[in-house]
Design brief:
This protein has two helices and eight strands. It has helices at about 60-65, 70-75; strands at about 5, 10, 15-20, 25, 30-35, 40, 45, 50-55. The strands form two sheets. A six-stranded antiparallel beta sheet has the order 1-2-3-4-5-6, with no helix packed on it. Strands 7-8 form a two-stranded antiparallel ribbon.
Length: about 80
Amino acid sequence: MGLCSERMGLCSERMGLCSGRMGLCSGRMGLCSGRMGLFSGRMGLCSEQMGLCSERIDLFSEYCLGLVKVKDAINRRLYK
């Protein structure tokens, strides 16, 4: 189970924490900055424009945020 608050832009899951406001995502596998569009980790995706981070594929996309653009980021495989 996860927790999402659109107002605060926060998504929390077992493996990590995503903050839409600050564009930062940290978890076991690495650190993601949405503003800079940088990701360091094994299985991660970062969307620079939306400031969203997903430590695992589709972790936050539909469940927390439901944004179509996240799927585009997943398809592009910003991090391989």
